[in-house]
Amino acid sequence: MTLQQLRYITTVADTGTITEAAKKLYISQPSLTNAIHELEKEMGLTIFNRTNKGIFISREGEEFLGYARQVLEQTTILEDKYKKNGGGKKQFCVSTQHYSFAVNAFVDLVKKYGQEEYDFSLRETQTYKLIEDVAQMRSEIGILFLNDFNEKVIRKILKSSDLEFHLLFVAEPHVFISRQHPLAKKKIITNEELADYPYLSYEQGEHNSFYFSEEIFSSFERKKNIRVSDRATLFNLLIGLNGYTVCSGIIDQKLNGEDIIAVPLADEGDMRIGYVTHRKGMISRLGETYLEALKKYITGEQSV
Fold first, then answer.
1. What is the domain count for the chain?
2. Which of 65, 86, 107 is the C-terminal boundary of a domain?
3. Of 58, 86, 114, at which residue does a domain stop?
4. Where is the HTH lysR-type domain (predicted)?
5. How far is it, in rounded angstroms, from Cα 172 to Cα 244?
6. Could you report the per-residue pLDDT of 166-220, keeping only the tens digit for each?
7. CATH code: domain of residue 201
8. Could you tell me which residues come within 8 angstroms of residue 255 by beta carbon, excluding any fewer than 6 positions away?
């Protein structure tokens, strides 16, 4: 077993096809296929199931890929620390719920380490997929929130996935609304006042449970509900339909525009926002830099 073979299988898993993986790795498809077969034969397992519709990761392959990513991550950390050339092309991936401060911290990271060659990924994704990304070590860090409603369920999933939650800060509930919204001039807003306006939230795919929602008070019954998959659509609907969403209150005008404001919500509760990491992994220098940038944006230095 070689590091090259581990890079091969993780690339195939990430791209989903032998063809795309071969292009990304700059090798021929037969060479890639043979390397994978040799590794499977040596390890005595089937990593990928081959069908007429393509390849799929087997159950034992998922476990093996988790260890493979761990080995590659530790190798990168060693190279980054001891190689004079910095270990070649730098790689880093973070998965997050939809937070502007997570994007801003990523921008800072790229500006600091984005030299001639790098391969960074920022995944604003669904909560379950975020946890899955970190569990399978596709992402080094995942950013999400806990509260009294979802904490027991989320922590159970984190524990079963060998993940740890690290608290960053506690946020009081706010609503994002348009600056032109009829309630925009109020110093505090109640859920009763919002009852006639569309409630916007991020859809969670097949795991569309209240426990995986990115919005606090997700289990509240509302007359008008719209689910979206990305930040730009949500903000456009906030403006176009006088909609609202419930959030942490941290907003960046440079990123989200000046037409969206955050107003405190009257209901009691909090969002304990933090990051998750794999218990068997180590935070790389890139990861440490990203976390430092995150803390900068959530301790008063962010644009609000």
1. 2
2. 86
3. 86
4. 1-58
5. 16
6. 999 999 999 999 999 999 999 999 999 999 999 999 998 877 778 899 988 877 8
7. 3.40.190.10
8. 100, 103, 104
Please report, for the domain that includes residue 46, its CATH number: 1.10.10.10
Is the pTM value of this prediction over 0.85?
no
